[in-house]
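Page 37, continued from 36.
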């Protein structure tokens, strides 16, 4: 009895775990060739102005159209790409593709600026010359630098003496916007951030999820967001709220004075053509 039980529980070969590990390894080693084969796509999620409900910009979100596994979301492969360095060529592809798209929208609607916000992993700053890449891509695509925003996480910029700080300063001087992504999930040192060339805070979706509803009669998060927005404004930063899923949340954010919002209430991340429709532009390919 005991033996059979033990045997069942402590098998050395756990097929499920082994399959998982193999998938991980296969995904990891498949990343670089997949970049070369062009298996990645960008989806775009609108950034909506809370004042007038207009589309101010979009965030580019990468997907891997895997030949065997189908469409993979970034959580499946971005950590692997950061681990093995494939994030550098992948990140370059994302940046170039996003900037090309942004330029197309800019040409189609010259009077309606559409900001392109692109996620950047810390390794892109450390292991590659991000500033040179951005400069080259902006020149090649002819996108005005002011229409590009880079999203970095708090951990990527906190304590960023040396290289990352230098990179941020150079990008800022070029006119590129810098946003702190998922703000509030890390070491939120706003005093320190305000000394960096940061232009926007993107409040993590967990804040909005904690807004008042039937289950949360004491909305600590709403008070915190209100204080953060006021402080950010006084420091000259604009604020974007992530993860807005309901009209009620959007209205509260608007009342608080938050600048822009992003979330399923407005739109999921969608293909470029849907954004083009949303902008009401007729764009030639
Ligand atoms: P993120 O930059 O914080 O992007 C927002 C994520 O929240 C996206 O997930 C988006 O689809 C999701 N989201 C948007 N609205 C809502 C909402 O109302 N409710 C909920 N629950 N979720 C919402 P996604 O596309 O799966 O991306 C996950 C993360 O992967 C991103 O988080 C970002 O950190 C990373 N990522 C995506 N694309 C890239 C990229 O090109 N480069 C790098 N380095 N990282 C990327
Ligand atoms: Mg982001
Ligand atoms: Mg985010
Ligand atoms: Mg987030």
């Amino acid at each position: 009895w005991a033996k059979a039980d033990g045997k069942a529980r402590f098998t050395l070969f756990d097929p499920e775990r082994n399959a998982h590990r193999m998938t991980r390894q296969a995904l990891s080693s498949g990343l670089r060739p997949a970049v070369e084969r062009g298996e990645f796509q960008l989806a775009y999620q609108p950034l909506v102005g809370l004042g007038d409900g207009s589309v101010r910009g979009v965030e580019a979100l990468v997907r891997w159209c895997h030949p065997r596994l189908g469409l993979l979301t970034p959580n499946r492969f971005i950590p692997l790409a950061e681990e093995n360095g494939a994030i550098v060529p992948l990140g370059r592809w994302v940046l170039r593709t996003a900037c090309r798209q942004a330029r197309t929208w800019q040409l189609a609607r010259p009077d309606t600026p559409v900001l392109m916000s692109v996620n950047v992993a810390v390794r892109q700053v450390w292991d590659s010359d991000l500033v040179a890449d951005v400069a080259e891509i902006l020149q090649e695509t002819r996108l005005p630098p002011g229409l590009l925003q880079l999203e970095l996480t708090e951990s990527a910029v906190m304590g960023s003496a040396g290289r990352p700080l230098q990179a941020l300063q150079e990008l800022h001087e070029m006119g590129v916007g810098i946003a702190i992504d998922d703000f509030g999930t890390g070491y939120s040192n706003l005093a320190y951030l305000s000394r960096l060339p940061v232009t926007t805070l993107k409040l993590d979706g967990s804040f909005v999820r904690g807004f008042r509803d039937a289950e949360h009669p004491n909305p600590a998060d709403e008070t915190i967001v209100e204080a953060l927005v006021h402080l950010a404004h006084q420091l000259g930063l604009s604020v974007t709220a992530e993860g807005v899923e309901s009209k009620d949340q959007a209205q509260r954010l608007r009342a608080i004075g938050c600048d822009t919002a992003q979330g399923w209430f407005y739109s999921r991340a969608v293909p470029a053509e849907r954004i083009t429709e949303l902008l009401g532009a007729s764009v030639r390919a």
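Strands lie at 40-49, 55-66, 70-72, 115-119, 148-153, 177-183, 200-203, 238-241, 260-261. Flag for discussion at group meeting. Confidence is low (pLDDT under 50) at residues 281-285.
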